[in-house]
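User: My instructor asked us to take a sequence, write out its structure as tokens, and then describe one feature of it. I'm not sure where to start. Here is the sequence I was given:
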Amino acid sequence: MNILVFGKDGQLGKAFRAAFDSTKLAELHRINYVGRAECDLANSDAIIALLNQTKPNLIINTAAYTAVDRAETEVDLACAINAKAPGVMALYAKCCGATFLHYSTDYVFDGSKKTPYIESDVRNPLGVYGKSKAAGEEAIEVAFEESDSSAGQYAIFRTSWVYGDGSNFIRTILHLGKERGSLKVIADQYGVPSSATWLAEISLALALDEQHRLKRFPSGIYHAVPLGETTWYALASYAVQVAIDAGATLQLSPGAIEAIPTIDYPLPAPRPMNSRLARGGLATLDKVLSGSVNMTKSQLLEKTWEPQVAAYVQDLVYRKLI
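Assistant: Let's start with the prediction itself. The structure tokens for your sequence are:
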């Protein structure tokens, strides 16, 4: 089997490489990791050429334009990478009978709903980033609807507040905590921190069987977040306390973090106030979703965000990355 991973230098791309390296997948299959240097995702011809060259059976698109505020002025680039490129990949997957895994975001919603969003809720993004990601979802759906072939399949994983090996909110807070004795953090936006490692495990549990072979699953959108919910303020406070308990030397303490409303921290692009995602789709796939090498399907789905964040922060402290 040929596997093609777009976005090798991002948090999720690195998580997939780690997942493949920890199993026999790297030995059993040919895996191509692609970053910006290997393929310009704003160039559809380059994407098509790469797909035709590598002939992947499994396409994993972890790449995205994620500069939420800069997207307000780089509209064309954000749309090329987040909207047009996924459509090109999806059309190839549909026509060539490949499996396509793509990653989207809570930003496709406006955040006005009072309860967690379900997969079938109407998309209504606020800013350019969210609009480009929503357009990417639609492009994938259209590609699979319009092609004559029916052998391909796809999964769009919507997730939120991703952290892993790279820049993210948790690492920013901890680095600031080494330099500052106080901090203000937004406390009225709700969501779920999602580990890139966990996302990779969930994705492979859906796409591959226990012998690491591709399997059939219902194509569509799946909300992929751990259990629980929190705010940016509560997440910052929790991460700082875990770091201190793990032996990190910080000027900042949880009690010195001030909770503020969104209105007191204006940014160029609007953010959804409610980023909570209900996992109805994945929860129903008892006969399709297999476990990873290290845990069962139920263990994967029952993981909450706090222990994962704690393990992540402890590892950062252990490796002296903060």
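For the description part of your assignment, you could build on this observation: Residues 87 and 115 are 30 Å apart (CA to CA). Try explaining in your own words what that tells you about the chain.
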